[in-house]
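User: Sequence in, structure out. Go.
Assistant: Echoing your sequence, followed by the structure tokens.
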Amino acid sequence: MKTFSNVQFLKFTIEKPDFSRKLYHLKNDEDLFGTLEEVSDKQTLGIIETAKDAYTIKRAGFFNPYLTLRLKKQDSNLAIAYLNIKGGTVINLDGISYTFKLNNLYKNQWCWFNEKNQILVTIRPIISGIVKADIEISKDAPLYEPIELLTLIGFYMLLKYQNEIEN
């Protein structure tokens, strides 16, 4: 797997290569930058893999929904993020806070922002079943180490949101 810091381009996609599995690839052409797989029966547990590490992500809570992020083989949480679709979901990784929120309703753009409120990643999910998304990263985004992880966490949140709408 590659990292965003190793490339010159700023546009990527998230695709579902096999419709029989809930596995998504973050890629540019043939280069793979990360994966997200939904693994639990209720589809709330996911595994995210990047060039740096493998993580588990889980959505929990009913009245106060939140995400937990762990290194794959560990029991302690790396981060907890309380979901707030209207105002923005904040997650703290490596001492830096990142906010995920809707940036443009009409263009269906969801973005990760840094602490200075600068856009790092823009995710545009494809409406037809949300099995694909167009990703654009800012030129400064590769300076932030967890940028591939953040991209896949954002896509995971959009998948969970889509699942709730459908059910």
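User: And one key feature?
Assistant: The chain has a mean pLDDT of 88.
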